[in-house]
Each structure stands twice: as C-alpha cells, then as structure tokens.
Design a protein that fits this description.
- The complex is a heterotrimer of chains A (305), B (325) and C (406).
- Chain A is mostly helical.
- Chain A contains 12 helices and 2 strands; from the N terminus they run αααααββααααααα.
- Chain A is 74% helix and 3% strand.
- In chain A, helix 1 (2-23) packs antiparallel against helix 2, helix 3 packs across helix 9 and helix 10 (239-252) runs parallel beside helix 12 (284-301).
- The two termini of chain A are 19 Å apart.
- By secondary structure, chain B is mostly helical.
- Chain B contains 15 helices and 2 strands.
- Chain B has helices spanning 2-24, 27-50, 59-77, 81-103, 108-128, 130-133, 150-172, 174-185, 187-192, 197-223, 228-231, 235-247, 253-272, 277-291, 295-308, and strands at residues 139-140, 225-226.
- Chain B has a two-stranded antiparallel sheet with strand order 1-2.
- Chain C is built from 12 helices and 14 strands.
- Chain C has 406 residues and is an alpha/beta fold.
- Helices cover 39% and strands 17% of the residues of chain C.
- The chains are: A mainly alpha (305), B mainly alpha (325), C alpha/beta (406).
- The A-C interface holds A 26, 30, 33-34, 128, 131, 135-140, 142, 146-149, 151, 156-160, 230-232, 234, 236-237, 239-241, 243-244, 272, 275-276, 278-279, 281-282, 284-285 and C 39-41, 44, 181, 205-208, 210-213, 215-216, 218-220, 222-223, 237-243, 246-247, 249-252, 264, 266-269, 271-274, 311-312, 403.
Chain lengths: 305, 325, 406
C-alpha cells in the first residue's frame, strides 16, 4: 500500500516536472540545481538527527569553517579547491570527533534543549573565531570551471551546479550503503532506532555516536569545499543553511534520508518557479516555509506525528 | 513559614529596587536594563509554554507581530504608547489563537520547526507588503513613547516584565500548573486524569505569544521604529532561549536570573573587549551548559539541598543531568 | 530557596554597581565618542581609521592645545545596544561629540537618544530616508556625512548624463536593475524608478542576497537577459559580486555595461579576471591617492598602521569625520555646542574621498555632507575613477568585453 502510494506519487511528480520543463525549462534546471545544494547540506544533518538525536545548530557553521579551511589551503598552497577539500574534510572529521568528545557527549542525557543551546553556543564561537581571523569581508575563489555552460536551443544555462546534485546523490547512496551494508553502519542504525537495545546487544553506543557525528561533520566539510567554489564566504554564511537544513529534515521526517533529497527537489523547483515570475521573487521564501508547514500538518492529520 | 516570610521580603525589596533603579542609576545602566527586561520578558514568556513540553522557535515571530501591530496602532489608530503596547500583545495573542487551533496538534520538533517557519513567513509577508507595513524599509513612529523621557519609559518596560512575571506565577499555581506538568510528563496519563490537553496547550500558547507580542511592542515604542530584518531577527529567538536555559527552565526565577546575568555579562564584556567579545559570550553558553546543565537555579538548588542535608563538602559536581520533571 | 533568593539580591547589587561610574574632573583631552558595529569590517575599519586620524592630529599638537581622545563602543548591529552605547558615552565617558554610524536600523534606534542629548553629532552611515525623517528638520546639531539613499540615485542620473555627453558611444537608454530584496536594494530600485522619467527606461527584479542566505541569481539574470539592457546594474552586497558574475558568464549574459553597486567588494576581487572592466559605484578607491594628497596620506598611513589597504569606504569616512570635527573645534575655539555648530557649518575639508566636504541642506535636515557616489571602473585589478571628471583617474573602457575573451 505504502509502496504503491510512493510509486504513484513519484510518477505524478515526474509528469509534472516534465510538463514544467516543456513550459519553463530553466525553472526545472535551476530548481534541480538548487535542490542539489540544499539536500547536500541537509543530509548530514539528517544523519546526526536520525542517529545521535541531536539538532546541531552549528551545522551550517561547520560547513563554513570547512569552506574557510579549503579557501586558505587553496590560496596559500595554490591547490585547486576541489583537491583542497579532501584535507579539509579530514580535519573536519577530527574536529567533529573533538566537538563530540568535549561537549556533546556530556549532554546526551540532558533534555534536547540543552544540546540545542550547546550547539548554538558552538555556532557563536565558530562564527566569531572566523570573524576575528578572517574579518567579515566576503571572500570568493575564482575558478574557471564554475562557469561551465551548455546551450539547449534558445536556453543558455550554467551546468556546474549539477555537481551539487551529484554530490547529494553520492552522499545519499554512500550513506545508504554504509548504514545497510557495513557492520558499523548497521550498528549505527540500530543505535539510532533504539540506543538502549543496542547497548544490550553489545554495541558501543557512545563510540557509534562519536563516529556518526564525525562522519556527518566530514561530509558537511566536503560540501563546504564545493560551496566555496560557487558562493562567497563570510563568517555568517552558514547560519541560514542550518535553518534550511533543519526545515528540510523535519519536512522529510526524522530518520528518512532519501526523503530529504525529494523534499529539497520539491522546494527547489517551487522556489525557482515562483522566482521566474518577475516581481514575485520575494515570495519564494514563503513557498519554502509554507510547504514545510503544509507537509508536516498533512502528515500529522494522516495519523503520524 | 519563615521561608515564606523571607521570600516575600526579598521579593518586595527586589521590587522596590527595580522601581527606584532610575533614581539611583544613570541613564546608561537604565538603558541596559531596558534591553535586559525585554529579553527577560521573552525568555520567561517562552518558558511558560515550555512547561507543557511544547518547544517554540517562533519567539521572534510573535515578538515582531506585536512590534508591528503597536507601531501601526499608533500611526493608524492614534493609540497612545501604553495602549499600543497592550494592543501589540493582544494582536499577537489573537494570531496565536488562530494558528494554535491548527498547529497545536503537532509535537516536539515538528511543532518547533513549524513555529520557526511561521516566524519566517511573518517576516517575508511584511517585507513584501510595501504600502501598509512599510516593506523592506520598515516604519517609524512620529515620536517615541513618553517623548523619550527616561524614567517613564523604564517603568513601561518594567511594567511589561512584571506582567510577564505575574502571568508566570499565576500559571505556576493551581490547576493550570498541574495540567501543564501532566502534559509534559505524559499526555496519555494527563488525559486520563481529566486534563483537556488541547485547550490547555491553546491557553498557554496564546498567553505566551501575547506576552511576547507585548515585549516586541514595548521595544518598538521605546526605539520608535520597526524593520523586517531587525524586528524579526533570529536573535530574539535564540538569545531568550539561551538565557532561560542558563537560568534554569520550568519556573519563573530561572529565566529572570538567566537574562539578568547574560544581559549584563554581554555588556561588560563589550567594554573590556571591543573587538571579539561575542566569542567569549559563546564560550560562556557552552561552559554553562556543560557544567550547570540545570542552569543557575538548578545549581543553587543543588547547593541548597546539599547544605541542608548536612554535607557541606562538594561530593559530586553537576551529577544531576536531568531536569526535574 | 532562601539562598537562591539571596543570590538574586547579589545579582541585583551587581546591577546597581553599574550605576554611574567615574566622576572625573573636567578631563584634559577632548573626547570623541564613536559607535560602530565593530565585528563588521565597515565598523572595524571606520573606527581604526578614526583612531589613525586622532593619532595624526595629536602628533601635530592636538586641538586647542589639548589632545583628542577617541572612545569607541560596539553597536553590535543592534539598535538598543547602539542607543545604550550613546548613553554611556554621554554620561559615563562624558564625551564632547558623538561620531560613528553604520546601518540604518541601528541609527533609527539611536535617534531618540541623540535627540535627548543634542550634542554635536557627525554621522558616517545610515542611508535610509526614514532615518532622515526621524531626525527631522529641527536637529541643527546633526551632521550627516554619508549620502541618503535618494541622493545616491540623483547622483547617478547626473553622472550618467555627463558620461553619455562626453562619450556619445556609451548607450544609457535601457536599464535593468537587479536588486536585493532587503533594506538596501529595494529602496534604491524604487528611488531609481522614480527618477527615470527623464532618463531612458528601466526595469528590474529582486533577488535574495547571499548575505541573507540567498545566492541564486538565475531567475533575475534570465529576466535581465530577456530585457536586453544597455546597462545592467545590480544592487546587492559584496558577497553577491563574484557569484553573480559567474552565473552571468555561465548564462552568456554580457551587457554593454555591467555595473555593480555594493557597499563593499570581496577580498581580492580585483585579482579575478571576471572583474576586468566592471563598472561600479563607490565613494572611495585606493586610486584616489593619485589625485588627492589627503587621500594618499590617509591610504598610506592606514596601510602602514594596520598592515593592509582599507577595504571599505567606511575607513576614509571614519578618518574624515575626525578631521572635520577637529577642524571645527579649532575654528570655534570652544566646545560650546552652539559655537561648534556654527563652526561645523563653515566646514570645507579637503577629504581623502576626493571631495571637499561642506554641509548643506538635504530634503529634511540642514546639514548634509556627501551626496554623490563616484562612478568607477575596475581596470587591471584597480578601481579607477571615471566620474566626476575632476577626479578621473582613467578613461572608461566600453563596451564591457564578453566573458570568454579575457
């Protein structure tokens, strides 16, 4: 029953997307690109929320830190940012583990709110530390390939942003493989569903949490490196993405990683659609948030939470 | 019995101090206290709803609605400053009533994210509404409340805080407190004990939002303007949350102490460390959460019980991680 | 319970202790109180440049034989904090003059306090016409250096008319404006549309600035491309600059004139090859040193003292405000506000921005300083002044070269 619903829903969505593509091709192109960026950032947050059960308000800020790291590696050592993001992601993995060990692990038994405010404090420290080191002046790397473009009849559009779609899909598939096929991953999934039960069958819950937090931080670090190629950096750049990611994860339903991608797809295309009407771009954000509320409410009326 | 007498004496002394503060302190401390009071009102108002277990991220939203409503009430309805503050509160409460009917079936994170999304929607609507609501520029008042006279405007914010404290203490007493705590602990049990969950939540949500709106209205009347980015700033959501938590949640005095301490520390820090003081602010938040997970009030209570039970020595530090349910 | 109430009392005592700090005697130095957002590059550099000016003046013997002292407090971009900072400067530090300013919303919150003290106030920021309305016509103690939003628009009309007269090959008929949807871009679009009755046709669309979590310009660029403008103008923030241009390149959108109007530029923007021949609006550029001795003194002094070129025009504004005030005090020979206002009205300060600063009435207030921004162009990694012609440092390059042949 549920499967049928998903298949029908998916088919309807696909048909709508194709019709929209015939009417306004750029809306679909840019909407999908936007969705790639949104979901690439949100999926690691969904991982942490699904398994460690904390809302990490420093999520976007960690991406920002990684992007700055990549930036300085790229400018000081002359590395390509897409190469520099590898060491940056490794550093972020360690940084994630450090944050988990020093702070988050001590608050796991406390109410959710404590973790929320704790990560809010971490976010402030990260933003302000970067502000002191690098000032608030925006920085941007200029790399040639981000302006790669394609022509399709009359339409001339950028194609580099599809890299975010690929990145999101890669992160998603990689995580699905990790969670379903590897021993550690299955243990992590078990911990996410029932930490006490997992403990009973001999899984080290604390170590699993640490690993998952480290992986999520490293992933958002990778996204940060890609982000830098496309967008400007400044200390506060991560904040809005923390919020958007949180919204997407809630819309998808906690623990449902693939749904984050589809939620982002819906939102990205809807935003691009509204923006394509001249003078109505300002209302695109309403669509984003109204859709989120609508989905959450509909799900609650259908019986879930 | 003596406890009660001490308590009322302390409260009366505090109230008198708060009232005569403008006479003994200069304009600068008064100005700081006005900011502290606004955040105090927000932190405490937010805590009232939290006592039911419902976590709102929409503080800035209802704060901002109240602020806009009060400015528009002055410019369009010719209300005076004080009545405009009340108007702002009532307006936010009404909006909360309508929205609460729909969204109060949501729980936990889904409720939180919905309130956050609502706050964003308010902001975007106002930013796009150019004529009436001023659009991205915002709106200004022809003159600020009491023409900027410092003492009455101080008393106005103090009045708002006292109303919020009064509301909080009222909620702390009797059946309403029982209902809120019961819902927080276990909704099903609460229902079986005859608590009307939905009505209780709706009452708390409307009260909380109205108080937030009043705080926003007071702020806008003091400083004489509203703008979408400033009035709906995420600071008005996150800082009160942090203040309440640092002071200690589920009670009147935690948020009060938290906002006082954090508000004053922030100001002192800034004077000693003009560039980069916010980093210390963040570190304080982290340290308090790690070492005082139940906030200042929790810490004081711990010391209090320990001393009373005769063990003067520090046997365990911050062992109690769970907030009393 | 008892202890915890006593704890409240202690905290209260701490609050009381904040009450009026120092009761110094009439202090020797002349005190300037500055309020800027110090965590932002604009406020940080404005305050540092103001300090640079204070040190220069003191090294040259001070003012009226007394040294200047600058006390800066962070506004944190918050109106209440900005107002509290003024209260402190007035009552605890007992400053003689208020200076500072960045961000209109902070300023709106400060205006009630400024009106309470009526000290000489010279402001480096806040462009919103609402701020001018809130100040009102009677505040003769108020001097506003930064152009108002509508001043800037008027300046562009004058500028482009002058340019198209001198360089007839430059077409300025069809305009498209991409503006950020917030408090900076949206009013400047409205102001531009209002002025365009006597200057060609204009159309526009909004985008969400990267500074506000946006950064996708595809929709607005599609609209702009379809409009085929002579001049494409974008009004956003520094963070929008390169991403916007990269998306333009990817979409094959290269109008004959590509104009940016952000309040600042990203670090090393000039080093990007996309920057070449982008036209921009600005108050100041390091190239002003070529045509202004004061500009050179400021730029060299700042670079030497702080180890980097100033990155925003708020730096020269911060420097200018100190000199303007110092010279006025010198002329007045006293710190009496009435006399100071008179002396300020006679200001003719040759500023590092190029312009000679004088104060004349604007729409509402009596004392408006700067009005125009300059029209500049990135050439070989440097911002060159194109207009006003008296400050010109280079000839304009036209048309904007396509993206691919760089």
């Amino acid at each position: 029953m549920k499967k049928r619903l998903i298949i029908t829903g998916g088919a309807v969505a696909l048909v709508l997307l194709i019709l929209l593509f015939l009417w306004k091709p750029t809306v679909v192109i840019y909407g999908v690109q936007r969705a790639g960026l949104y979901s690439a950032i949100a999926i690691p947050m969904g991982l942490v929320l699904g398994i460690v059960h904390i809302v990490n308000l420093a999520h976007g800020e960690l991406m920002m830190v990684s992007a700055y790291l990549t930036y300085f590696l790229a400018t000081k050592l002359g590395m390509d940012p897409l190469l520099a993001l590898i060491p940056a992601a490794v550093v972020l993995f360690g940084f994630g583990i450090l944050i988990y060990r020093l702070t988050i692990s001590h608050t796991l038994k406390a109410p959710e709110l404590n973790q929320l405010i704790l990560t809010f404090g971490i976010a402030i420290v990260l933003v302000q530390a970067v502000n002191l080191i690098a000032t608030s002046q925006p920085r941007k790397l200029s790399v040639d390939y981000v302006t790669a473009s394609a022509k399709m009849g009359e339409v001339h559009f950028g194609i580099y942003d599809f890299v975010f779609v690929a990145l999101a899909v890669a992160i998603l598939l990689g995580l699905q493989w990790f969670l379903k096929k590897t021993k550690t991953g299955r243990a992590a999934l078990a911990v996410g569903q029932n930490p006490k039960g997992a403990q009973l069958v001999g899984i080290n819950v604390d170590r699993t949490y640490m690993l998952v937090f480290g992986i999520a931080t490293a992933l958002v670090g990778v996204v940060g490196g890609f982000f830098l190629t496309k967008q400007s950096l400044f200390p506060a750049v991560g904040g809005p993405f923390t919020m958007k990611s949180f919204a997407l994860v809630a819309m998808a339903g906690i623990g449902n990683l693939p749904a984050i991608f589809f939620a982002a797809l819906g939102l990205g295309v809807a935003e691009a659609f509204i923006s394509s009407f001249q003078g109505y771009g300002g209302w695109a954000h309403i669509v984003f948030f109204a859709l989120i509320i609508a989905v959450i409410l509909i799900r609650s009326f259908r019986g879930g939470k | 019995m003596t406890g009660k007498i001490v308590k009322s004496t302390v409260l009366i002394v505090l109230l008198i101090l708060a009232l005569i503060f403008p006479m003994i302190a200069g304009p600068y401390p008064q100005s700081i206290m006005k900011t502290v009071f606004v955040y105090m009102a927000l932190a405490l108002a937010w805590d009232i709803l939290l006592r039911s277990g419902q976590l709102s991220f929409g503080i800035a939203g209802f704060y901002g609605l109240g602020a806009y409503a009060s400015v528009l009430a002055v410019t369009h309805l010719n209300l005076g400053g004080v009545s405009a503050v009340l108007f702002g509160g009532i307006f936010s409460a009404l909006v909360a009533l309508l929205l609460g009917l729909i969204i109060l079936r949501l729980r936990a994170m889904y409720f939180a994210i919905t309130t956050l999304a609502l706050a964003e929607i308010f902001r975007v609507i106002i930013r796009n509404w150019k004529g009436f609501a001023g659009g991205p520029d915002g709106l200004i008042l022809p003159s600020v409340v009491f023409d900027g006279a410092p003492v009455p405007s101080y008393l106005l914010v103090l009045g708002v805080v006292l109303i919020v404290i009064g509301a909080s203490e009222f909620v702390e007493k009797g059946r309403f407190r029982f209902a809120l705590t019961a819902i927080r602990n276990n909704e099903i049990v609460a229902k079986s004990r005859g608590v009307n969950v939905f009505t209780t939540l709706l009452k708390a949500f409307v009260l909380t939002s109205g108080l937030m709106g009043m705080a926003g209205a007071a702020f806008s009347q003091l400083y004489g303007f509203v703008t979408p980015e400033n009035t709906f700033s995420a600071d008005f959501t996150l800082l009160p949350l942090a203040m309440a938590l640092l002071g200690g949640i589920y009670g009147t005095w935690g948020p009060v102490i938290g906002s006082l301490v954090l508000g004053i520390i922030a100001e002192y820090l800034k004077l000693f460390m003009p560039y980069g003081h916010l980093i210390v602010y963040g570190i304080i938040i982290i340290l308090v959460i790690l070492f005082m997970p139940r906030g200042f009030v929790g810490l004081i209570r711990d010391i209090d019980t320990r001393n009373r039970s005769g063990k003067g020595e520090d046997t365990k530090t911050s062992s109690s991680k769970e907030v009393p349910a | 319970m008892k202890r915890f109430l006593i704890a409240i009392l202690f905290i209260t005592a701490a609050v009381m202790a904040m009450a009026n700090g120092s009761d110094e005697e009439t202090a020797k130095p002349i005190k300037l109180g500055g309020v800027w957002p110090l965590a932002d590059i604009t406020g940080e550099q404005a305050s540092k440049a103001a300090q640079q000016a204070v040190e220069e003046i003191n090294a040259a013997g001070g003012v009226l034989g007394r040294p200047l002292e600058l006390i800066v407090i962070d506004s944190e971009f918050k109106p209440d904090k900005g107002a509290a900072a003024l209260e402190r400067l007035a009552t605890v530090d007992k400053v003689d003059v208020f200076i500072g300013g960045m961000a209109s919303s902070v300023h709106l919150g400060q205006i009630p306090t400024l009106k309470k003290y009526k000290k000489l106030t010279v402001w480096t920021g806040a462009a919103s016409h609402l701020a001018e309305e809130a100040i009102g016509p009677d505040a003769d103690w108020y001097f506003h250096l930064h152009p108002w939003d509508y001043n800037q628009g008027e300046g562009y009309v004058i500028g482009w008319n002058a340019i198209s007269e001198k360089y007839p090959q430059i077409a300025t008929e069809r305009w498209f404006m991409a503006y950020e949807e917030g408090a900076f871009g949206s009013p400047s679009f409205d102001a531009s549309v209002a002025m365009f009755s006597d200057m060609g046709t204009i159309d526009g669309d909004s985008f969400t600035s990267a500074a506000a979590g946006g950064g996708d310009y595809t929709a607005v660029l599609e609209t702009a491309k379809a409009y085929k403008p002579d001049i494409f103008l974008w009004a956003g923030y520094a963070a929008d600059a390169l991403p916007l241009m990269e998306q333009s390149k990817a979409m094959g959108f290269a109008p004959p004139l590509y104009v940016g109007a952000p309040p600042g530029w990203p670090a090393d923007f000039g080093a990007s090859e996309l920057a070449e021949n982008v036209t921009l609006y600005g108050m100041w550029a390091p190239s002003i040193s070529d045509i202004s001795a004061v500009g050179k003194k400021f730029t060299d002094g700042y670079t030497e003292k702080y180890g980097a070129l100033p990155a925003t025009y708020f730096a020269p504004l911060g420097y200018t405000v100190v000199y303007v005030v110092a010279e006025a005090i010198e002329r007045a020979g006293t710190l009496d506000t009435e006399a100071l206002i008179k002396a300020m009205e006679e200001t003719a300060y040759d500023s590092p921005l190029g312009e000679t600063i004088t104060f004349t009435p604007s729409n509402i207030i009596k004392h408006q300083g700067l009005r125009n921004q300059k029209i500049l162009q990135w050439q070989n990694g440097r911002q060159e002044v194109i207009w006003p012609f008296e400050y010109q440092t280079a000839e304009p390059v036209y048309p904007f070269p396509g993206w691919d042949n760089r």
